[in-house]
Give the backbone structure.
Amino acid sequence: MGTVYAKERRGGPQMDEEEGTLSRTFSGNIKAKVQRIHIDGLARTKDDIVIAQVQDVFKAGTFKEVIEKSGNAKLKLERLGIFTGVGVFIDTSKGEQDDPDGFDITFNVKESRRITGSTHAQVGNNEGNLIVGVRMPNIFGRVETLATEYTHGSKHTTGYNVTFTKPFSKNLDKRFIVSGFKSSAEYLPSSYRDTERGVVTDCTFGGILGKHSVRWEGVWRELACMTRTASFDVREQCGHSLKSSVKHIFTRDTRNETILPVKGYLVKLTQEAAGYTGGDVNFLKSEAELQLNKSLFWDWVLSASLQGGLMKSMKESPTLIQDRFFLGGPTSVRGFNLRGLGPYSQGDSLGGEAYCAFGIHLYTPLPFRPGRGGFGDLFRTHFFINAGNLSNLNLAENNMQDHFNQLRETLRWSYGAGIVLRLGRFARFEINYCIPQTALATDSVNAGIQFGVGVNFL
């Protein structure tokens, strides 16, 4: 947005004999002291928020550090999300009593409008969504944001939400979020439609090892059958339920990007307890996701993923279908249809209370590298092996060896190859040829060509 401009104050002028132009040469290690910082363009933004982003500039001891710390301060101001433009100007101090090595820094900012609107598309879980939103940034001058969005999906998904976000103090890594929402989605493989209305509060903060999110959810849910042929197992769960749960999410992500990373790893751990803060839904749920990416030779990348989850009802009644795990599909275990693995009843996928899945991928450039350095770099060839299992375990029996054997003996796996297309930095598209190797009679298999689009892939 802005540019760091520096005016040099030392060193004599030199004439370039060939070009006949005047230039100056100086060493970046000359002593420097920042005497003043000016911030122009503030209207409703409070001073303490901006000062916290630029105060490190005063620690500069050389001209090179002045340039670097001014640039870092500019990035921090842009990261606030309340300015449409940030510029930096560095000049020598002009006061009679100023230090001879003194500099004045001026940040020129342009605040965002009080109300902004946007329309954009979002891709995920093999579905496209059109999102229309209105946003009110920096309402009270301390980076608070009020936003409302309406979503309409390609698979009859609709919803809206109103979200208020406020950072804790001046640390943007610590945020408090409260959101009210309503959403409605159809799940054809399970023959039900789920409508949810609720409130979510979230506290996000950084830690030594990664980012933490502590969340409370209060949701009124309505489950309805989509067809008259829905199975009895789905029909008996139709109706209303009230879920109140506390959730903790830990994330450590060192990947260079999320869509097609070439290095780094991801660790994500989620724990959820429902029923202890009210409602008529009671369960304990835990889930883990690991991903490791390693760059090899010739722009080849090896990626390995491991996922697993376990949940247990805290009442005698079984868990509800909305809360269970599902597996299978182009973004999950490839070679199977969406929700194609696990327990079934009369053709309806019922989900499970325990699952495991892993995948190994080898990403390579396209053969002969067509369009190298341009459009061709958006494509990658990949070879993969996927495996997973989804079932219900009787956790009342504390024989872990039997549980492990149950998951191992009915493990499904597939392999194949395909082409990956990066859709900017928000999603990717895959076309794969899948060859399932093991499957149960109740599984929904999709051998051959399979298309997938989304953000998170196994």
In short: Confidence is low (pLDDT under 50) at residues 1-25. The CA atoms of residues 174 and 293 lie 28 Å apart. The first helix runs from residue 47 to 54. DSSP finds four helices and 24 strands in the chain.
